[in-house]
């Protein structure tokens, strides 16, 4: 059964008949593009001495990219193969010149003549012209032979004519010949289609340096998306978590301590407004608004306000902060790590005591956020995103984070961040979260306390 499937697979695959249509249409398009380009290039070369030819050649080059768009669409529709679009034509326009229009026209024309993608499309047109008759011949032969052999027994029907056929019985062998002959044509069609798919990737899509540039652009876009996601999760998530904590505390003591409940409602209003402002800033960043029209991102100098805000929300926080001359980018990372750790403690260990330590020592910053064990810890199954955000952010800054339960109970976040791009060699970065640990984080924190 497997052998029969391999032999006759292309014959029963609907994709084969789309490939047949592609090869049939390919002859017409191959001739059309080839005649068009050869005619225009000939006219351009023939009249280049009077400068009209230069315009014709440049115009012909400008046609090649639209031709590539049409050909990629055909490969996608008929061959079921998606070819990535190439990078746009690259040239640097001039805007602050009295002759900017002419200068830009010259630069664009030069870019068209040096456009590697356009020349690859020209090569594709030559390939289509060469393979068009071959593909058309095999496609039309496959269809005609297959139909002819399948319908051969119909020749035995007597329609009342006076023409005796001595060899009529041979027509009964048509279906048998169909099973023997047509698989070879079907596999040939499949091979020709695969050849077109392979060359389409090289000639109609990005290639070489373009592939690398597009890959870098996609990586930059993905990194930006991750940063936006982290900003939303860290800032908005932290504020919403504090609002939930404040609301829960206010409801719990509303009748016993109305003054505290009133303060809680005030804090909820304040944090709600701050969350809306933060959301507005992040959306403005996505839209590409001017950054100077919005509040700057919080950094290391804003950590005292962060700790005070957590205290106002009812979290029992003690802190030790010694961060001087921290680079702004690193300061923003430190702020987000501590913010997420406080959010995690408020969400999953309400009522616990939280210790926040952040020490800058030379070229390293040590961070420790640890909460004690509570009598009724909350389910932490939903905290995976926040903890992953801490690890990812620290890793992007060249550091290392250890997150997990401490041996004495409770939960701890320890992180070491370098001022430069990499951590120094030879220092231990994995923290055991114990009092006897000698990792970089614990060494810096213990050294600063003496």
Explain what the structure shows.
- With 450 residues, the protein is an alpha+beta fold.
- It has three domains: 202 residues, no CATH class; 79 residues; 152 residues, Heat Shock Protein 90.
- The chain has twelve helices and five strands.
- A five-stranded mixed beta sheet has the order 1-2-3-5-4, with helices on both faces.
- Strand 1, helix 10 and strand 2 form a beta-alpha-beta unit.
- The radius of gyration is 36 Å and the shape is elongated.
Features of this protein?
450 residues; alpha+beta; 5-stranded mixed sheet; 12 helices; 3 domains; Heat Shock Protein 90; single chain
Q: Can you give me a brief rundown of this structure?
A:
This protein is of the alpha+beta class and 450 residues long. The chain is 62% helix and 8% strand.
- The structural class is alpha+beta
Assembly context of the chains: single chain
Strand-residue proportion: 5-15%
Helix content: 55-70%
SSE order = HHHHHHHHHEHEEHEEH
Q: Give the neighbour order of strands across the main sheet.
A: 1-2-3-5-4
Please state the overall shape, judged from the principal axes of the Cα atoms.
elongated
- How far from one another are the termini? 79 Å
Strands, total number: 5
Q: Give start-end ranges of low-pLDDT stretches.
A: none
Number of helices: 12
**What does the main sheet amount to?**
5 strands, mixed
The figure for the number of domains is: 3
Average pLDDT, rounded to a whole number, is: 78
How big is the Rg?
36 Å
């Amino acid at each position: 059964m497997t052998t029969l499937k391999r032999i006759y697979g292309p014959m029963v695959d609907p994709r084969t008949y789309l490939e047949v249509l592609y090869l049939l249409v390919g002859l017409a398009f191959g001739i059309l593009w080839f005649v068009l380009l050869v005619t225009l290039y000939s006219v351009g070369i023939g009249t280049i001495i009077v400068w009209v030819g230069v315009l014709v050649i440049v115009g012909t080059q400008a046609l090649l990219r639209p031709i590539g768009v049409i050909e990629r669409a055909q490969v996608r529709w008929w061959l079921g193969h998606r070819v990535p679009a190439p990078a746009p034509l690259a040239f640097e326009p001039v805007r602050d010149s009295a002759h900017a229009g002419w200068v830009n026209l010259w630069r664009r024309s030069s870019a068209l003549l040096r456009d590697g993608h356009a020349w690859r499309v020209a090569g594709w047109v030559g390939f289509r012209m060469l393979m068009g008759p071959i593909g058309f011949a095999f496609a039309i032969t496959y269809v005609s032979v297959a139909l002819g052999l399948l319908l051969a027994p119909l020749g035995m029907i007597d329609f009342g004519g006076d023409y005796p056929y001595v060899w009529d019985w041979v027509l009964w062998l048509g279906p048998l010949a169909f099973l023997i002959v047509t698989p070879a044509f079907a596999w040939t069609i499949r091979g020709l289609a695969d050849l077109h798919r392979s060359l389409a990737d090289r000639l109609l899509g990005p290639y070489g340096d373009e592939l690398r540039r597009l890959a870098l652009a996609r990586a930059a876009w993905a990194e930006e998306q991750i940063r936006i996601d982290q900003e939303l999760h860290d800032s908005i998530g932290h504020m919403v978590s504090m609002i939930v904590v404040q609301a829960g505390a206010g409801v719990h003591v509303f009748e016993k301590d109305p003054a505290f409940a009133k303060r809680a409602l005030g804090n909820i209003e304040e944090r709600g407004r701050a969350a809306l402002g933060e959301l507005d800033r992040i959306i403005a960043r996505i839209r590409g608004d001017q950054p100077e029209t919005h509040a700057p991102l919080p950094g290391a100098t804003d950590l005292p306000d962060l700790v005070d805000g957590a205290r106002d929300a009812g979290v029992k926080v003690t802190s030790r902060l010694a961060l001087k001359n921290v680079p702004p980018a690193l300061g923003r990372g430190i702020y987000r790590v501590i913010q997420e750790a406080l959010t995690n403690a408020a969400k999953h260990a309400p009522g616990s005591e939280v210790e926040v330590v952040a020490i800058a020592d030379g070229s390293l910053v040590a961070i420790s956020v640890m909460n004690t064990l509570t009598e009724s810890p909350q389910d932490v199954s939903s905290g995976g995103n926040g903890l992953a955000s801490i690890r990812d952010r620290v890793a992007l800054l060249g550091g290392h984070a250890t997150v997990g339960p401490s041996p004495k109970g409770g939960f701890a976040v320890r992180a070491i961040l370098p001022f430069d791009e990499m951590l120094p060699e030879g220092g231990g970065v994995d923290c055991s979260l114990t009092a006897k640990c000698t990792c970089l984080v614990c060494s810096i924190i213990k050294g600063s306390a003496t």
